[in-house]
């Protein structure tokens, strides 16, 4: 009962501290950034402490739910294995599929914008393909491209292509008629209107697709590895270690995947802030 009482007291104290933090009105931007960072960090630490305390207080077997300290110990003891899995899944399959999927989706969106025929014919087909389940696509890609990372990159490409396509097409239509008429009075060509008006207006939509795809890509690559892969990779590690009942290694791999996905998303979000600093949503988040 001591662990459970400690978890309850810690949760109440952390809740009160976070409530006090969010009510602060700092005078400087630096203090505001510190508070904005401290609140989610404190929330995450609270969840880990409650997790650890509940597992110890209720004596939950490690095979069902290992404690955070056990998972951390497994991570430290398995760094070479986790690094090899990270390289196979993220640095090869995810990055390659993400670049190809987002890049091809962006290019096809420009072509659709120039062709009403493609807009009416390809977009409905894209919505249909995007609804296909990954567990149905992954085995086919493995048959086509083999068991190595190329088949996983193909799955990632399919998963990231249509979110980029749909968001870019929608973003290219975001500029209003008055703005486009103004460019017409300047005798601007289609390319000049695209680069100086329509692409800047579409930038928030494009970055929204990039952020969505940053998480979809990792999920797609890991799930695709369940259907055939060399003896390395995050998906392979989760499947293999679960079969051996090494639950702590499974959670260690999940933790590395979550950290990689969150970092990837954060990098894209930082790039978005640097590129679309002029957008009202970015200006409001800076104040």
Instruction: Specify the number of helices.
Output: 12
Give the N-terminus to C-terminus distance in angstroms.
46 Å
Main sheet attributes: strand count, strand direction, barrel closure: none
* Count of all domains: 2
Briefly note the structural class of the backbone. Answer: mainly alpha
- Identify the CATH homologous superfamily of the largest domain: MetI-like
Count every beta strand, where a strand is a DSSP E run of 2 or more residues: 0
Shape: flat
Unreliable spans: none
Top CATH class of the largest domain: Mainly Alpha
The sequence of SSEs as H and E is HHHHHHHHHHHH
Radius of gyration: 23 Å
Plain-language structure description:
- This protein has 287 residues and is mainly α.
- It folds into two domains: 2-60; 74-286, MetI-like (MetI-like fold).
- Helix content is 83%, strand content 0%.
- It contains twelve helices and no strands.
- It has helices spanning 2-22, 29-57, 68-77, 79-114, 116-130, 134-145, 149-172, 177-185, 190-224, 234-243, 247-275, 280-286.
- The longest helix is centred in the middle third of the chain and has 36 residues, at 79-114.
- It is flat.
- The relative contact order is 0.10.
Topology (elements, then pairings):
Layout: H1 2-22, H2 29-57, H3 68-77, H4 79-114, H5 116-130, H6 134-145, H7 149-172, H8 177-185, H9 190-224, H10 234-243, H11 247-275, H12 280-286
């Amino acid at each position: 009962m001591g662990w459970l009482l400690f978890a309850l007291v810690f949760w109440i104290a952390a809740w009160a501290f976070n409530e006090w933090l969010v009510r602060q009105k700092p005078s400087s931007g630096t203090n505001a950034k510190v508070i904005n960072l401290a609140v989610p960090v404190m929330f995450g630490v609270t969840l880990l402490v409650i997790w650890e305390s509940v597992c110890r207080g209720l004596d939950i077997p490690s095979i069902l739910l290992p404690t955070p300290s056990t998972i951390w110990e497994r991570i430290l003891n398995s760094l070479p294995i986790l690094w090899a899995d990270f390289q196979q899944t993220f640095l090869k399959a995810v990055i390659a599929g993400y670049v190809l999927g987002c890049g091809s989706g962006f290019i096809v969106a420009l072509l659709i914008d120039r062709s009403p025929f493609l807009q009416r014919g390809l977009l409905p087909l894209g919505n249909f393909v995007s609804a296909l389940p990954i567990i149905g696509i992954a085995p086919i890609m493995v048959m086509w491209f083999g068991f190595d990372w190329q088949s996983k990159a193909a799955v990632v490409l399919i998963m990231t292509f249509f979110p980029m396509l749909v968001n870019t097409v929608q973003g290219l239509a975001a500029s209003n008629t008055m703005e486009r008429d103004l460019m017409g009075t300047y005798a601007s060509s289609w390319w000049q209107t695209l680069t100086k008006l329509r692409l800047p207006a579409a930038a928030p939509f494009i970055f929204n697709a990039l952020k969505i795809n940053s998480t979809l890509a990792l999920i797609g690559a890991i799930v695709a590895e369940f259907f055939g892969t060399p003896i390395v990779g995050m998906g392979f590690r989760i499947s293999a270690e679960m079969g051996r009942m090494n639950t702590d290694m499974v959670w260690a791999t999940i933790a590395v995947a979550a950290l990689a996905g969150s970092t990837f998303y954060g990098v894209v979000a930082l790039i978005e802030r640097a590129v679309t600093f002029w957008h009202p949503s970015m200006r409001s988040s800076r104040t």
